[in-house]
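#struct-help
A.M.: can someone run this one for me? Single chain, 210 residues.
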Amino acid sequence: HKKKRFDDTTRKKRLRKNKETGLIETVPFETAYPFFGTIDYMMKIIKEKSLVKNAKKYIKEHKNDYDVCFSTYGRYFGHYIGEYIKKINPEVLWIAEFRDPVYNELFNAPPTRRHAEKFSENVYRKCDRITVISNGMKNLIPEKYRDKTTVLTNGFDRDDKIQDTSFEKKDKFRFIYTGRMYGGVRKTQRLFEVIKELSDENRIDISDFE
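D.P.: on it. Structure tokens below:
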């Protein structure tokens, strides 16, 4: 049920007009089909809690082997584990990382939004430190928890970069996208449309781009 709805971004339910831009946008699977989106969300939570259950025995046996716990969100599992470690060993410093917001109106079916907000609030309250990857993400953290929030951006130190000089030629302007398309919600055609317009106006040479 999910796959055919997730993969087919041409269905009427997957499209809507943006009131601000007038452009037709793709609606995420979760909000286009709230019933299936909610079932999918519930299944994910059940799986995450099952993983935690399987890990508890190991964690109990090794609870004094470490003094810092770093958990990351992309899945609920990491923060569930962080909360459990903090519970059985309060002396552990628990640092909770959020590279994405847990609650996102676009990607949360309406029935799941309260749970996502509650989960976030629980982690914010119980952890010792919060890290986020941008100031924009920091602004999404409730104000009462921002004092313990630190921005650690994505990236690397130049000294750690492997010097592959083949990528440093100046004869091309290269675009590289390494993210996900989120079932058609992320699109790249606007970039190509702009490049084409500039090329049609003879303002750029399209062969200069990769």
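A.M.: thanks! The helical segments are 2-7, 29-32, 34-61, 76-88, 113-126, 135-140, 189-200.
D.P.: also worth noting: Strands lie at 15-17, 24-26, 68-73, 93-98, 129-132, 149-151.
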